[in-house]
C-alpha cells in the first residue's frame, strides 16, 4: 500500500503525473508492477500524517489521535522511540485505536519497532512513498524489496482544501481552559489510566541499572592490561623476602647421682627431703618352675654286623695287632678284630696279608648307633690309632659284604641327661628373674595404688642358690622324658621413675647454655648404672648414676633481647644484597644451622632494601 501517492478527488495531480511516478518506481526497482497495480486500486479519501518525537508516550499519542476526525492516520515514529520499548504499549494503543474506529498506520525505519508494531497488529511502512517493509510482508527478504528508501517529508492533505467559516460561537480563553479541563476529566477512563500506569512503570524500569554483557575481546584486553599493571606495581612497589632460618642445635648430656633409699628402713631420713634421694621399695619373690626334659640317651638292643677283613702290610717287617684293634671306614663306622694277629711283612712281590674276623661297635665315631648300617659293601678301612705315615703302610678291606647288623634302641636316662637337665633348669630360672620381679612390682602397684618401676641393670637383682630336683633313681631307666623342678629366691628394688625424671630434667635445664633454649628432653635415652655397695655402706641405700640427653638450640625470638638482636643484625647485613650473598652471610653465623630465602617477586635479583619488607621466619629443627 502506498497511500500518500493515491489520487484523491480534490488533488491537483494529473494521470500523466501518476503514470510518470509509477514508471519511475518500476525503473528504480522499488515496486513490483503487479503490486503497484494493486496499490493503485486502493483509494483513500482522507489521510493525516502525525509526526511523533522520540520521547512521546502512549497517552500523548492517543490524545492527539482522538482530536483528528480523519479515519486514516499515518504515524511517523523515529528510531529508538519510547513507544517501541514494549509490544504491550503498542497492543494497548492498537486496542484503543480500534475503539475510536480509526485506521492507523505506522511509518518507521526502526527495525525492532517494525517487528513489535507488526506483532501488535499494525500495518507498517518503512517510508512515506514506497512499499511495505519486506520482512513484515513475507517473513524474509527478497531481491525485489531490499532497497529501503529514506523517509520523505509530506504535506498533510485533505479532500477539502478550501477554508470554511466556523458556524460555532467563538470561545474565550477562560472558557477554553475550563472546557479542556472538563474534557481531560471526562477522558480519564480506566483504559487511559491503565495506559498512564503502564507508562509510569516503564519509566521506573528505564531508571533501573541494566547490566550489558561486555565485548569479550575488550574484556580480555582490559584484564591483560590490568594484570600487567599489577605485576609492575608488585615489582616496583611491594617486593618482599622471607628468610627461613633454622637455629643451630646441639645434644646435651647430663648425669646425676641418685640414692634409692628403702622406705621402711629410712623413714626418718626421707622425711628430711634430702636432694637427689628417692624412696625405694623391695620387690622379692621365690620363683618356682617346672619343665619336662626329653631323654637323649639310647639303650642298644639290636645286633652288630660281622665280616672278614683282609689286612695288608707294605712295610718290610711284621706288624702285630692286639685284640679289639679298631678299623674304621671313611663314614666313621668302627669294626674291631676279636683276636690278636700278626700281619706278615711286605716283599718285592707285594704286601703281606692276613684275614681277620671283625665285629661292628654299637656306636660309630660320631656316637651314633651303627646297627644295620654296619652291613656295608666292600670298602677300604684304616687304623685310626696309627699316624698318617703308618696308615699308608698297613690298611684293610672287605672283599665281601658284611651282614647281621640290626638296629633296635630304646630311650634311656643317662648321667649326661641329668646334668644337662639341671643346667637347663638353672638357666631358665636366671632368665626369668627380671620378668618375675616385674610381675611382682605390677602386683604391688595394683594393691597399693602406686606407680613403681623395677630397677634393672647389671647387679640390680639379688638371687639365691637355685634348688633343682629330678625323680629319684631315674638314671638308667628307659623313659622318653622326665620332669625337672627348680626354685630360687630373688629380690629387686622398685622406685618412682617419674621422680627420677624430674631430677634429671632439673639437672638438664641447669646445664644448658644460657643463650640456648631446651627444645627436647629425650626420656627414652635414660640410662642407669648401679654403684656397687662397698663394705661399710648402708645396704638399704642403693646408689645409682642416671644419665639423660636433651637437645638445645639458640633462641632466636623477637620477644627475647638476644633473639631480637640477632634478627636486627641479620636484616642490617642482607638488605639490598643478592640472595647468594645473603645466604652465605647468614650461614656463617655461629647460631644458625641452615637458611633458605624466598623472594617476591620470584624474579627479583636482590633482597629488598626496606627492612619492613624482609620477614624472618624461625624453623624448628627436627
Please provide a written account of the structure.
The structure is a single chain. With 622 residues, this protein is of the alpha+beta class. It folds into four domains: 3-182, no CATH class; 237-248 and 556-618; 253-298 and 410-544, no CATH class; 302-407, no CATH class. The strands form six sheets. Strands 6, 7, 18, 19, 20, 21, 22 and 23 form an eight-stranded mixed beta sheet that branches. A six-stranded antiparallel beta sheet has the order 11-12-14-9-16-15, with no helix packed on it. α4 crosses α5 (111-120) and α4 (87-99) packs antiparallel against α8 (190-207). The model is unreliable at 1-31, 33-45 and 130-164 (pLDDT under 50).
Please specify the SSE layout and strand pairing.
Elements: H1 15-28, H2 33-41, E1 48-51, H3 58-67, E2 72-76, H4 87-99, E3 103-107, H5 111-120, E4 123-125, H6 134-137, H7 173-186, H8 190-207, H9 216-237, E5 240-247, E6 249-262, H10 267-271, E7 277-294, E8 297-300, E9 306-313, E10 319-321, E11 326-328, E12 334-337, E13 341-343, E14 352-360, E15 380-381, H11 388-391, E16 394-397, E17 409-412, H12 415-431, H13 433-448, E18 453-454, E19 462-463, E20 467-469, E21 481-495, H14 497-511, E22 516-530, E23 541-554, H15 561-574, H16 579-587, E24 592-600, E25 614-618
Parallel strand pairs: 1-2, 2-3, 3-4, 5-25, 6-7
Antiparallel strand pairs: 5-24, 6-23, 7-21, 8-17, 9-14, 9-16, 10-13, 11-12, 12-14, 15-16, 18-21, 19-21, 20-21, 22-23
Amino acid at each position: 500500500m502506498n497511500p500518500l501517492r493515491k489520487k484523491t478527488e480534490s488533488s491537483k495531480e494529473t494521470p500523466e503525473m501518476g503514470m510518470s511516478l509509477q514508471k519511475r518506481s518500476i525503473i528504480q526497482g522499488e515496486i513490483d508492477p503487479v503490486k503497484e497495480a494493486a496499490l493503485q486500486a486502493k483509494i483513500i479519501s482522507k489521510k493525516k500524517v502525525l509526526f511523533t518525537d522520540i520521547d512521546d508516550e502512549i497517552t500523548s499519542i492517543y490524545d492527539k489521535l482522538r482530536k483528528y476526525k480523519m479515519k486514516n492516520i499515518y504515524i511517523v515514529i523515529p528510531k529508538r522511540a519510547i513507544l517501541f520499548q514494549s509490544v504491550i504499549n503498542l497492543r494497548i494503543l492498537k486496542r484503543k485505536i480500534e475503539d475510536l474506529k480509526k485506521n492507523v498506520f505506522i511509518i518507521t525505519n526502526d527495525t525492532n519497532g517494525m517487528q513489535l508494531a507488526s506483532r501488535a497488529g499494525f500495518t507498517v511502512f518503512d517510508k512515506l512513498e514506497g512499499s511495505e517493509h519486506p520482512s513484515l510482508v513475507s517473513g524474509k527478504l527478497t531481491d525485489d524489496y531490499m532497497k529501503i528508501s529514506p523517509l520523505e517529508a509530506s504535506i498533510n492533505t485533505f479532500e477539502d482544501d478550501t477554508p470554511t467559516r466556523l458556524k460555532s460561537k467563538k470561545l474565550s480563553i477562560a472558557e477554553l481552559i475550563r472546557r479542556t479541563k472538563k474534557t481531560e476529566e471526562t477522558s480519564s477512563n480506566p483504559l487511559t489510566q491503565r495506559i498512564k500506569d503502564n507508562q509510569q512503570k516503564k519509566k521506573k524500569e528505564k531508571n533501573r541499572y541494566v547490566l550489558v554483557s561486555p565485548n569479550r575481546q575488550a574484556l580480555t584486553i582490559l584484564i591483560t592490561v590490568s594484570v600487567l599493571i599489577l605485576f609492575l606495581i608488585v615489582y616496583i612497589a611491594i617486593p618482599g623476602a622471607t628468610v627461613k632460618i633454622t637455629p643451630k642445635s646441639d645434644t646435651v648430656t647430663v648425669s646425676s647421682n641418685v640414692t634409692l633409699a628403702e622406705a621402711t628402713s629410712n623413714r626418718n631420713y626421707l622425711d628430711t627431703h634430702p636432694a637427689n634421694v628417692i624412696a625405694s621399695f623391695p620387690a622379692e619373690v621365690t620363683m618356682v618352675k617346672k619343665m619336662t626334659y626329653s631323654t637323649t640317651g639310647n639303650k642298644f638292643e639290636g645286633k652288630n654286623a660281622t665280616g672278614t677283613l683282609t689286612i695288608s702290610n707294605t712295610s718290610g717287617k711284621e706288624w702285630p695287632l692286639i685284640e679289639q684293634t679298631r678299623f674304621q671306614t671313611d663314614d666313621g663306622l668302627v669294626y674291631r678284630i676279636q683276636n690278636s694277629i700278626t700281619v706278615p711283612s711286605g716283599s718285592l712281590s707285594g704286601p703281606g696279608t692276613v684275614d681277620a674276623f671283625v665285629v661292628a661297635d654299637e656306636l660309630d665315631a660320631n656316637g651314633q648307633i651303627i646297627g644295620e648300617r654296619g652291613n656295608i659293601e666292600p670298602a677300604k678301612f684304616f687304623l685310626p690309632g696309627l699316624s698318617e705315615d703308618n696308615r699308608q703302610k698297613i690298611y684293610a678291606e672287605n672283599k665281601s659284604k658284611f651282614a647281621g647288623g640290626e638296629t633296635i634302641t630304646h630311650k634311656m636316662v643317662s648321667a649326661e641327661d641329668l646334668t644337662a637337665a639341671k643346667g637347663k633348669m638353672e638357666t631358665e630360672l636366671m632368665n626369668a628373674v627380671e620378668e618375675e620381679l616385674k610381675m611382682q612390682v605390677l602386683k604391688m602397684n595394683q594393691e597399693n595404688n602406686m606407680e613403681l618401676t623395677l630397677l634393672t641393670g647389671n647387679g640390680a637383682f639379688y638371687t639365691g642358690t637355685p634348688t633343682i630336683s629330678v625323680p629319684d633313681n631315674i638314671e638308667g631307666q628307659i623313659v622318653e622324658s622326665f620332669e625337672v623342678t627348680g626354685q630360687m629366691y630373688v629380690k629387686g628394688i622398685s622406685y618412682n621413675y617419674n621422680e627420677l625424671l624430674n631430677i634429671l630434667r632439673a639437672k638438664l635445664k641447669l646445664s644448658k647454655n644460657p643463650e640456648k633454649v631446651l627444645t627436647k628432653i629425650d626420656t627414652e635415652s635414660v640410662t642407669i648404672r648401679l654403684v656397687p655397695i662397698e663394705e661399710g655402706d648402708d645396704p638399704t641405700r642403693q646408689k645409682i648414676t642416671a644419665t639423660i640427653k636433651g637437645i638445645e638450640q639458640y633462641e632466636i625470638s623477637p620477644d627475647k633481647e638476644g633473639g631480637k638482636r640477632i634478627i636486627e643484625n641479620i636484616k642490617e647485613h642482607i638488605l639490598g644484597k643478592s640472595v647468594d650473598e645473603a645466604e652465605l652471610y647468614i650461614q656463617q653465623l655461629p647460631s644458625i644451622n641452615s637458611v633458605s630465602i624466598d623472594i617476591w617477586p620470584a624474579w627479583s635479583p636482590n633482597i629488598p632494601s626496606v627492612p619492613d619488607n624482609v620477614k624472618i621466619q624461625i624453623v624448628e629443627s627436627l
